[in-house]
Amino acid sequence: MNEPRIDDAIRRMQASISRATPTPPAQIELGQRRRPTNRMRTAGMAAGGLCLLTAFGVWSVSRANHSSSVVPASEFSSGITVPVTNAQATVSPQKVTACDGSALSAVAEFRGLLAGNTKVQVVLTNVGEVPCVLTGSPTIEGVDSSGNTRSLSAVEGTYFGDPAPLADGVLQPGGEGAFYLAGALSCDAASRGQHETWAAFRAVLPGDSLVEFKSDFDSACGVSVSQFGMADPPTPPDGA
To answer: Is the pTM of this model over 0.90?
Structure first.
């Protein structure tokens, strides 16, 4: 309802009441009961109408304000977006750090010859309790019988390529990774009958931790290493 129209109606009703209200007598005797006149009835009806009109106007304004602030249920849908606070956001996963040699064990496996090149697979097992990252490639040191060490200046990249990569470069607890240690049978040193074997080898990991393993690998004709990756499947037994 238009508010100016309500105000006009109220003013007209107030004027009607003013004209209809009788002038009270100077004195009414005690106990005398006065009968209502037509003018008094008209005034009462006008007053009642004014009350109803005023109440209706207040109700209309209140309803209009309420309607403008309340969203009907029909406007909601299952696709409504609910705000997400920072506390409800996805929790960040635990940070995975690089593998440390103290949490790894290493076993060397001879994997054969190809075109005069020798291949040894060094299998690394995560014996720790948490996942770790195993990426890049190691450097190799030889350990003699007296415990002295020497860098073997291993070249990155082997004749046999690299093992298949680990998923996200992560080695799970109990999981296995590997790298290839490769050499050759033919070189000037080998032609002179020279050999270079070691009591043990050390693979120095990124971050400078190390893991030790044993092998009869001959480094006289040079050493190359692959990237870290997944361990090759076991070699089938002869005749299988």
So the answer is: no
